[in-house]
Amino acid sequence: MVTTRHLPIEEIAGQDATRPQREALCRVVAELAAQGWCQGTGGNFSVTLEREPVRLLITRSGVHKRYLGPGDLMLVGSGGRPVAGETVKPSAEAALHSRIVGTTGAGSVLHVHSVPNTLLGEHFVGKGGFALRGYEMLKGLEGITTHEAEVFVPVLRNSQDMDALSEEVAALLATRPGLRGFLLAGHGLYAWGDSLAQAHRHVEIFEFLFECAARRTRFAPFEG
Amino acid sequence: MVTTRHLPIEEIAGQDATRPQREALCRVVAELAAQGWCQGTGGNFSVTLEREPVRLLITRSGVHKRYLGPGDLMLVGSGGRPVAGETVKPSAEAALHSRIVGTTGAGSVLHVHSVPNTLLGEHFVGKGGFALRGYEMLKGLEGITTHEAEVFVPVLRNSQDMDALSEEVAALLATRPGLRGFLLAGHGLYAWGDSLAQAHRHVEIFEFLFECAARRTRFAPFEG
Amino acid sequence: MVTTRHLPIEEIAGQDATRPQREALCRVVAELAAQGWCQGTGGNFSVTLEREPVRLLITRSGVHKRYLGPGDLMLVGSGGRPVAGETVKPSAEAALHSRIVGTTGAGSVLHVHSVPNTLLGEHFVGKGGFALRGYEMLKGLEGITTHEAEVFVPVLRNSQDMDALSEEVAALLATRPGLRGFLLAGHGLYAWGDSLAQAHRHVEIFEFLFECAARRTRFAPFEG
Amino acid sequence: MVTTRHLPIEEIAGQDATRPQREALCRVVAELAAQGWCQGTGGNFSVTLEREPVRLLITRSGVHKRYLGPGDLMLVGSGGRPVAGETVKPSAEAALHSRIVGTTGAGSVLHVHSVPNTLLGEHFVGKGGFALRGYEMLKGLEGITTHEAEVFVPVLRNSQDMDALSEEVAALLATRPGLRGFLLAGHGLYAWGDSLAQAHRHVEIFEFLFECAARRTRFAPFEG
Questions:
Q1: For residue D141, how many other CB atoms are within 10 A of its CB?
Q2: What pLDDT is attached to residue C14?
Q3: β-strand C44-51 against C54-59: which pairing, if any?
Q4: Alpha-carbon gap, residue D102 to D107, rounded angstroms
Q5: Apex C66 CA angle, D210 and D33, nearest 5
Q6: Cβ neighbours of residue C130 under 8 Å, at least 6 residues apart?
Q7: What are the tens digits of pLDDT across the range D36-45?
């Protein structure tokens, strides 16, 4: 992880200083895409370069994530705003990434769409979330040491107002310090970890357990 | 995109002028096949070379799409008829591709078979279609900017009479100018976009949402 | 296709004369394995070298099909018996392959296990089979030209007595000359075609439609 | 990393003596990961080097199995304890591997997490297990020669107390000498075989049949 406080413009404009992180993130996104979790232009992914102030490498807007390359990533700061020198648009949800990193100190934030996470979010939004318990896989989440733990997965109502959503996410994170992921109803999972590798493991664990839960859920019938 | 009006016989007979588009289409079809959406000889795919008159590169008849190569594509014009010089048969459904391009100006038309799209088409044909709403993935469809939009997916009754089906499709497109896809019952999805890349994204988004809807649908029991 | 009547011992023992067919069959089996249809040591596959008398290249016993190589195939004749010079055991079901080829003149017989075909066979064995109708994919089966056709998929009761099973299959084929596949209950699909490529397409089409049917079937509850 | 103290230098000082087994195990784990059975850091895998006393090559703790390399394996002995010289931690469940090998003489023990095995274990733990019968795939399990056999799959209650769990597993193995696998409720499958290849086949067969059973099981509704 690059930890310099002040990145000269030329190091932001050029990609060389961040090349290892760019390549690492692209490899992880390729894995997530192979799982079917980045269909269409869905999903957005970031790696934290700096926490104070927040500085992230994040996927730019409108790229099909299966074809993501190191040049498709850009630098954003607090509020998800592009740093000086960046000429492309970041993912619409960059503000959420910045807020999560700013509040939790996460090393990476990964947002994926899967059929189970979409259905479960839609189904449980009225209840504000659902709890997973009794699964050994829960121990893969940092901080969980037994299958007898209960992990609550909050579900927030989706919104196109990113600022409002950021505030809601910040409030959620303040009340749940051990949280590693939440759902936006009908929109997907946001998961994070201390590092890119840990965030990636967290996504896989959540998605595995979501599929288990989804196969047991009586979803409201779709009637067209 | 090649935009010449009159292609000399030698440029039709040889493939060189259209090589980039052929290779691009083959790469996309390989991705669709990897998703399981071209099983058997199912599926047909086109890229628009010219809109006025309509001139398309399209998959020829009877090829297993997983093995599609640039030489398996051919040129057709209006009505899906092979241009002068072509010696092989185009996909049976070339007329539908030509009609969609002629009416919408699409840059690419992609037709896939998936288990969810087959089941949903069969199930909702009586109602003429179904609506998808509340899903963030809908924003991946060109023209949709919020998950609160409602996207109607028309379902037409299948037919072996391609001319009649073309007319029905033309009528449908005339009444729904923002349409990006429809289903033929028990037959699959036709989706398109301004470009090959956009059409590909549209297929992925539709198929993702079809799987969500299918997992919530009480299909009529199969009793043999 | 090699059509010599009398293969000298040295041409049987060496593999050179049949190398192209061996490699083609291995490529197809690799595709079937990639679909998850050859789990464990499940599945057996043959290519017809000669029809009169029957002479087939077939997978030998006990090989994990995902790792199948040209050397894992052997020559068998009528009744599935190894030809002179072969030292390994053929698949237990070689007799079925020989019987199907002898009766239908098929160019290739492919036997796969899938979750849908296993469940459907188990479910419909009491009724002797089930019918698929209304699916466009049915047109991928040789001889079917419209989705309005009805294709009956016979289900035979499984047995470890290969001779008895061969007789039953022969009787079935005699009564249904257009047949391209049948199920053995709890055991899987046998499908064939005039060529290896056609047999492969038939397997894909049957399996696609089995998944459609399975998602609509109310299977008897599993109670342990 | 191997860094031995007391054991024949040529056998362990470098990794060379165990290189073939390390590479073989990594290839199998890559296959299991490709099936989605090692999500997160789930799963642990061993190959038996010696049975008396027990000496195993086993995955070390905390590695994402999709990226497993030969250097991520370590030597453990009886009780799953690292042999002298090993500096890293073995999988938490190494004690179970050692106990299974010590009791059955297995050549390899493979532990995977799948959605079906997780759901079935959770569902049938109260009954202590479930029986699979009538499936031809059962013949892929060593010792089973007919689809009419009945194979009981024991389900043990999960626990974080590895010593207690080892004793329970030993008791189970003592009462069921033909056993090739069991489930830990909500935790996954332990399967083994005389060799790595046989253990791998057993995992595939169990998982295939678990998916068949799971699609017929009325799981308790998930209500959040």
A1: 24
A2: 52
A3: antiparallel
A4: 10
A5: 55
A6: B222, B224, C120, C124, C152, C153, C155, C213
A7: 999 998 899 9
Selected residue of D137, D183, D217 to mutate for chain C interface (largest C Cβ count, 10 A):
D137
Report d(CA C220, CA D11) in Å as an integer.
54
What distance in Å separates the CA atoms of residue A154 and residue A132, rounded to the nearest whole number?
11
**pLDDT given at position B15:** 52
Query: CA C11, CA C33: separation in Å to the nearest integer?
Result: 29
Beta bridge mates, D189: D112, D183
Verify C-A touch: 3 or more CB pairs within 8 A.
no
Give the chain B residue whose CA is nearest to the CA of A118: B212
Q: Which residues of chain A have pLDDT under 70?
A: 1-15
Task: Give the closest of B131, B134, B211 to A115, CB-based.
Answer: B211
Distance CA(C116)–CA(C211), nearest Å, equals 5
Parallel, antiparallel or unpaired: strands D150-156 and D181-184: parallel
Q: Residue A20 is encoded by which pair of tokens?
A: 């290892």
| DSSP-assigned letter for residue C90 | B
Token digits of residue D216: 């017929």
Query: Residue D87 carries which side chain, given as an amino acid letter?
Result: T
DSSP states along C91-132: PTTHHHHHHHHHHH--SEEEEE--HHHHHHHHHHGGGTEEEE
- Separation between Cα atoms, residue D4 and residue D11, nearest integer Å: 10
Chains C and D: how many Cβ contacts under 8 Å? 72
> D41 — contact with chain A (CB < 8 Å)?
yes
Confirm or reject contact between D217 and chain C (CB < 8 A).
yes
**β pairing state of B44-51 and D181-184:** unpaired
Separation in Å, CA B116 to CA B212, C147, C153: 9, 18, 22
Q: Which residues 158-177 of B have a C-beta within 8 angstroms of C?
A: 158, 160
ipTM of the complex: 0.91
SS3 (DSSP) at D60: strand
CB contact under 8 A, D224 and A131: yes
Q: Please report, for residues A171, B149, C4, D138, the alpha-carbon distance to residue A163 in angstroms, rounded to integers and kept in the order given.
A: 13, 21, 77, 57
- Give the C-alpha distances (Å, rounded to integers) separating A89 from A21, A60, B145: 20, 6, 16
Please give, rounded to a whole number of angstroms, the shortest distance from the CA of A7 to a CA of chain D.
33
Taking the C-alpha atoms of residue C105 and residue C206, their distance in angstroms, rounded to an integer, is 20
Q: Are B15 and B71 in contact (CB under 8 A)?
A: yes
pTM summary value: 0.93
Closest CA to C113 of C93, C133, C99: C93
Q: How many helices (H) and strands (E) does chain A have?
A: 6, 8
| Three-class DSSP category at D133 | strand
Residue among D197, D201, D212 whose CB faces C118 most closely: D212
DSSP A166-218: HHHHHHHHHH-TT--EEEETTTEEEEEESSHHHHHHHHHHHHHHHHHHHTT--
d(C-alpha A93, C-alpha A58), whole Å = 10
pLDDT tens figures, C106-149:
999 999 999 999 999 999 999 999 999 989 899 889 888 877 78
- What SS3 state is found at A132? strand
